[in-house]
């Protein structure tokens, strides 16, 4: 089904064609929107890096581009950051000048703690302004930040500390979830205890909801350190870095428990984000842009912090949920109160609102006159939710598709270029920079409307990952070897006759739970570590709110006399303890056997179809078909499988 939003023809076909004719010219032109200390010698150098590098020879600073240049050019008194926290009742606006002062002072503190250009700094923080100051303070002095989402447990944090080897960690005493205070600092202490790498120092922001104990000789109180630096008037200047230097590392789920350290280089990222703000999101400098995600995810990096600020917008930092803080009208309140013209969130947030307030009664209390569009990403935007949002909001609802790896959207509907007609279930068309193809198993392009693996022709555009942190080989193996000449997205789908993309699901063991990307392989490793478990499989089961939730099927070792329900409860607790609450692992089911192929491969796909109540057939390679009936019965016993 198609809806048309505009009668003026979109400039997209021409812009995309221009990029195809002269990709380097296209990005050279886009790079004029960024302030360079030294312009690039080569826009694309095919001989540098794993598949080539963007803006080689160029030098710039991300913080200067996001903050200082706006202060210098008339935006000093404009709101840069609005912190809105329904979970604490706090609200605070920082102008660009105030933001610059906070960042430059914190950057001086980091320097005092020994942080230099190229050093890593890990942030384990809730959605408070200090998290944004921390990221930009690192960027200011050329340090590489790595933000770890607060919903991850100590073990996950420890893995990231070992890989990123940070000199300093920035953290806060606690985060606040709808109904509970989550003490971060004890988790941080535990993670440092577990990690073979120890940081030189931790800077801890104490929140009134929970005061953490500081470790002598290692931990410093954030406020004290910043006040001291401020009292002596110390502010760190922006340090020029190479365009190809890493701005940050962001860990994301791979197919095993070992996360991948996605590297983001500096110059290309700034260029791509700046291009996307006007052309894709259709916002103008000075307008308010709200991305309701978390700084722990790529969406938060790109569209809470860097994108809106690079563009001179006001960004909203929202510490709350779509429902329960206090009600399903929270998003409308924030849009209306801060006059956001665009909201970007995950479909799951809208499913949560729809479930609680199907008629959107809360909307009546808020004036959304200036609101222009809702952007959705992070998981498939189901047509029901898109149509509901369209009906209640009366603005374009734009699905767009991207990954932690790409840093900005691969496909979307470019509002700034004039929107294309929407087709429900499709994130529309590839953005300039991305040549997207659907391939068969042999890597041959498939005709329109045929499902296959989605791949992007190399080189990836500016903004996308140049490699994985200290792991070029893993990068090649994971993304570039399956289809030579292409980046394998590990998403499956098709392209229709009009060139619209449809993203139908992952081809690997990654599931999407409430817009959060999780590895079933990682959860299996945790389940397998329980002494009573002989073998296990974790599948993503369809869920009306979260899209998918994990379900673990476990076979116990013979001779285990304990009640299975007791062990199942332990397994739920173990995943929460080892991976974190964000895994939303609530369902472990004991079964007698797992279905396998004759070569011993567990048939997870078939079990998923049974659990989802979809039609399924017995795979020809199955060892013992009777096991599928046993699995069906076990799933039915827990209300799954229709
Ligand atoms: N720190 C500590 N714990 C966290 C956390 C954080 N930053 N974020 C989430 N958690 C916890 C939650 O409290 C919850 O714990 P519980 O099992 O004790 O209830 C668990 O992790 C799962 O969290 P979540 O998946 O967020 O579920 P929820 O029930 O709290 O909320 C939604 C459901 C749909 C409202 C929520 O997931 C949401 O707003 N999603 C939007 C997703 C999003 O922004 N994705 C980013 C990509 S665009
Ligand atoms: P993340 O790296 O957390 O951003 O997750 C990336 C994955 O989320 C993609 O590989 C897709 O599987 C899924 N995804 C993100 N956006 C969309 C979308 N608009 N439609 C379908 N799937 C999406």
What this model shows, in words?
This protein is α/β, with parallel strands linked by helices and about 650 residues long. It has a domain at about 515-635: GMP Synthetase, Chain A, domain 3 (2-Layer Sandwich). The chain is built from 18 helices and 33 strands. A hairpin with a 4-residue loop joins strand 5 and strand 6 (about 90-95). The longest helix has 17 residues, at about 95-110. The protein is globular, with a radius of gyration of 24 Å. The structure holds coenzyme A and adenosine monophosphate.
Question: Keywords for this structure?
Answer:
binds adenosine monophosphate; globular; 5-stranded parallel sheet; 7-stranded mixed sheet; binds coenzyme A; alpha/beta; 642 residues; single chain
Describe the structure concisely for a colleague.
The protein has 642 residues and is of the alpha/beta class. The chain is built from 18 helices and 33 strands. The strands form eleven sheets. A seven-stranded mixed beta sheet has the order 6-5-18-17-19-20-21, with helices on both faces. Strands 8-7-9-12-13 form a five-stranded parallel beta sheet, with helices on both faces. Strands 25-26-27-28 form a four-stranded antiparallel beta sheet.
